[in-house]
Design brief:
- The complex is a heterodimer of chains A (337) and B (508).
- Helix content of chain A is 49%, strand content 15%.
- Chain A is an alpha/beta fold and 337 residues long.
- In chain A, strand 6 and strand 7 form a beta hairpin.
- Chain B contains 20 helices and two strands.
- The N and C termini of chain B lie far apart (111 Å).
- The relative contact order of chain B is 0.07.
- The chains are: A alpha/beta (337), B mainly alpha (508).
- Chains A and B meet through helix 1, helix 9 and helix 15 of A and helix 1, helix 3, helix 4 and helix 5 of B.
Chain lengths: 337, 508
């Protein structure tokens, strides 16, 4: 018991240090930072959405610096080719004059990949990320190359400039563990940002966690217990996002075309486990599931024409589902009472 | 003590509490159902007079409710995991209790279990089952209070069995009394109007009694038929006494005897002709021409009077002898007798009206009224002039409204009214002798009526007055019995209108 409790405590301390280091550079955005850490610990990828200038890129760079992981940044443009991401084979000549092919890995061969403005690349290039994100490997000329673990893709996109962009297809969206909304800072945060960025002194970030420690933490997270009725609640939440399901709410029936995939439940439970550990608990609670429901599910719902036409936000649909679905099903309460 | 004893103990306490709360709710539900059933049965016993023993009923209900409760309570279960999950939710324990309990059962070797159990045990020691399962009375259970209140009220308050059908019958009877009262008042008004016109004092008095009785029947709500019949019977007795007194005074002993009634020659009643004669004889001396006119009038009356013509002959003798005073006295006596006669007629009609009312109240006329519904349905469409309120007066046994008119002064039927309306008579006067048509009418003793009418010049071998009454009655019977198809009624009516023996309102 002491061992687990100590591990949990150590886990909490380490990631508190990570937060503290990031906070040296990034003002506010605590939820986004927590979301990024959840993705890191769950082995998932994150999609950050926000208007330009909110510090998305800086946040990701800072995370890379704090975690002592290899970091690479890809600026997605319309002329970016898949080979520019995953690498290509080049012809080389040895001392004897023999020519041979050698694979030159692309920027994806890093622990943390920042796919900046991912929706500006063509779908062909975007899809080059699919295998890497899901399989943690890339295949070039029939040869599969494993990516270094931990592997984390952090993509950003600008929701305003839609001209000349290629919205991510649903299949690719579903591969992102969380979708995090980077919101505009408050007055106090803005004041702090101004102070920090207009001074001579620039803070330097110290690496806190190594790759091995992160991989161990990823394994540790998966051990966290979750009660059957909590898991059942996560499942009911995801099922309620499907308009055909009996649990579906009125809002879902009216505005949603397709609900969340099973990856939604996986992300809910895993993210809940991480959140429980962050809180120093040994089990997942309903509160953990509710807290991560929005970033886990908001990009997995596909609105129908009516929803799109009326400008319905998927976040509103998920909040409605959270409000409508009881934590304990009625029959369970009835059986108890 | 095992490592998870506090958690197990908390689970047991929570289960017991959950069962208690659920059983209390179940008991209240059973009580609600039982008290509801008790109210229904008690209402049946008190209001409808169900022949049930209260001891048996309430004992049975209590026993049944107890059995149902025991059956339901025995089947109730409370599992540990759901009650712990409920405790986690209510006490905001972040699902520590339920997760620890579940992993203790499902995965006792889980690496997190020890730490999880330690936390759960710590929390379980502070769990108060009363906070998790508070003993609240369900909202529906408050229905027991009004049910029990109703039960007590039904048992304590002196509410007798409600006889729905008896009430209905009583209400119908009361309505019938009121209806008869309205009818009597209507007839009384009509009789008063005629009596005032004819200056018949007794008829006037009786008419007012009739109206008074009618109003009394209408105002005495809830008066039984028997009481109403008794009141009608009292007035009938009074009327009979009045008739008897009048008969004593009249020369004609019985109204069923032969009576000279109608004089149509000058479209005046016998009484009017007698009064005109009396007016002529008011002078001490009479010119010859006036004397001649008076003699002709007396002769005419003498011919009509039949067996009573002797008085007129004596009158004629006195007149011819120049004894005007004797003739005047004799004529005054005749006029008085005629007055009495008319009054008797009126009283007879009133007697018939009272008799009809008495029979209607006794229920004997109920079937007649039902049978005559077709009659009452057809008559109003024939005669709107009779007025909507008189529609019930067309029953077979009832005296018709025209029966209240003075003899010879019929306004609803006859040629006098035809002439009064100013319509030119389609019949022409001839020099043929006056015809007399015997007409059977009324009920009981046969009353012979003589109708004198001007003979008409036409091509028929039989004079119209000889057949018109028969035709009229036959037509009315046929119309009443609806033997004539509705489509032909207009033709029948037009025919009688064309031959001029009926007038427009009566033909409808």
């Amino acid at each position: 018991m002491a061992d687990i409790a100590a591990q949990v405590a150590q886990f909490g301390e380490e990631f508190q240090q990570v937060r503290a280091e990031i906070a040296k550079v990034i003002v506010g955005h605590t939820e986004v930072v927590e979301g990024l850490l959840i993705c890191l610990l769950c082995g998932g990828h994150a999609l950050l959405e926000g208007v330009p200038g909110l510090g998305k890129t800086l946040l990701v760079k800072s995370l890379g610096a704090v975690l002592d992981l290899q970091f690479s940044r890809i600026q997605f443009t319309p002329d970016l080719m898949p080979a520019d991401i995953i690498g290509t084979r080049v012809i080389l000549q040895d001392e004897e004059g023999h020519r041979y092919f050698e694979f030159q890995p692309g920027p994806i061969f890093s622990n943390i990949v920042l796919a900046d403005e991912i929706n500006r690349a063509t779908p062909k290039t975007q899809s080059a990320l699919l295998e890497a994100m899901q399989e943690r490997s890339v295949t070039v000329a029939g040869v599969e190359y494993k990516l270094q673990l931990p592997f984390l893709v952090l993509a950003t996109q600008n929701p305003l400039e839609m001209e000349g962009t290629y919205p991510l297809p649903e299949a690719q969206l579903d591969r992102f563990f969380l979708k995090l909304q980077v919101s505009y800072p408050s007055v106090a945060e803005l004041s702090e940002i101004v102070d920090r960025t207009t001074q001579q002194h620039e803070p330097t970030l110290q690496p806190v966690l190594s790759a091995e420690r992160i991989l161990a933490a990823q394994r540790f997270v998966r051990e966290v217990p979750i009660a059957s009725h909590v898991k059942d609640y996560a499942i009911r939440l995801v099922l309620a996002t499907h308009p055909q399901a009996p649990q579906a709410t009125e809002l879902v029936k009216r505005y949603v075309r397709y609900g969340s995939s099973p990856r939604g439940v996986q992300s809910l439970v895993l993210a809940g486990k991480v959140r429980a550990l962050f809180a120093g608990r040994f089990n997942v609670s309903f509160e953990d599931i509710r807290a991560v429901a929005l970033p886990c599910l908001r990009h997995r719902l596909i609105l129908n024409f009516e929803g799109e036409a009326e400008g319905i936000d998927t976040a509103a649909v998920i909040e409605d589902v959270l409000a409508q679905i009881p934590e304990l099903p009625t029959r369970r309460i009835g059986a108890a009472v | 003590m095992s490592t998870h004893e506090p958690l197990e103990r908390a689970a047991r306490r929570l289960r017991r509490r959950a069962l208690l709360v659920r059983r209390v709710a179940c008991a209240l539900d059973v009580l609600l159902a039982g008290s509801g059933a008790g109210v229904v049965v008690t209402a049946g016993m008190v209001l409808a007079g169900w022949p049930l023993s209260p001891l048996l009923v309430y004992g049975g209900l209590l026993g049944l409710a107890g059995l149902v409760f025991l059956g339901l309570a025995w089947r109730m279960r409370a599992d540990a995991l759901p009650v712990l999950a409920r405790a986690d939710c209510v006490l905001r324990l972040h699902e520590r209790l339920s997760t620890a309990y579940e992993y203790l059962q499902r995965a006792p070797a889980h690496p997190f279990l020890t730490a999880l159990l330690a936390e759960a045990n710590r929390q379980a020691a502070q769990v108060d089952p009363r906070l998790v399962f508070p003993l609240r009375v369900p909202r529906r259970a408050w229905g027991v209070v009004p049910c029990l209140g109703a039960l007590v009220a039904l048992a304590v308050l002196p509410i007798g069995p409600v006889r729905f059908f008896d009430n209905l019958a009583a209400e119908q009877a009361a309505q019938e009394v009121v209806r008869e009262g309205q009818r009597l008042e209507r007839w009384g008004r009509r009789l008063e109007e005629l009596a005032r016109r004819e200056q018949l004092e007794r008829s006037l008095l009786l008419a007012r009694h009739l109206q008074q009785l009618g109003r009394g029947l209408q105002q005495q709500e809830g008066e039984s038929k028997a009481a109403a019949t008794e009141r009608v019977s009292s007035l009938q007795q009074y009327l009979e006494r009045m008739q008897h007194e009048l008969r004593q005074r009249a020369l004609l002993s019985s109204p069923g005897a032969v009576v000279a009634q109608e004089v149509f020659v000058s479209r005046q009643s016998l009484k009017q002709e007698l009064q005109q004669l009396l007016q002529l004889l008011q002078h001490e001396t009479l010119p010859r021409e006036v004397l001649s006119v008076a003699e002709q009038g007396i002769l005419r009356l003498s011919r009509q009077a039949g067996e009573h013509s002797a008085e007129f002959e004596r009158l004629l003798e006195d007149l011819r002898a120049g004894n005007l005073a004797a003739a005047r006295r004799l004529l005054e006596e005749i006029v008085q007798r005629q007055q009495v006669l008319e009054e008797l007629e009126h009283l007879e009609r009133a007697r018939q009206a009272l008799e009809y009312t008495a029979r209607a109240l006794q229920g004997k006329a109920a079937s007649d009224a039902t049978a005559s519904q077709t009659h009452t349905r057809t008559r109003p469409e024939q005669g709107e002039a009779a007025g909507g309120e008189d529609e019930a007066m067309f029953s077979e046994d009832m005296p018709a409204l025209e029966d209240f008119t003075a003899p010879g002064m019929d306004e609803s039927f006859g040629f006098s009214r035809y002439a009064q309306q100013g319509t030119p008579s389609p019949l022409r006067e001839s020099s043929a002798p006056l015809s007399e048509v015997p007409v059977p009418s009324g009920e009981g003793a046969m009353r012979l009526s003589y109708i004198r009418y001007l003979p008409v010049l036409n091509q028929a071998n039989v004079s119209p007055e000889a057949v018109s009454v028969h035709y009229r009655r036959a037509a009315e019977d046929v119309l009443t019995q609806e033997r004539i198809p509705r489509a032909y009624r207009e033709q029948v009516r037009d025919y009688f209108l064309a031959i001029g023996v009926i007038h427009e309102p009566a033909a409808r």
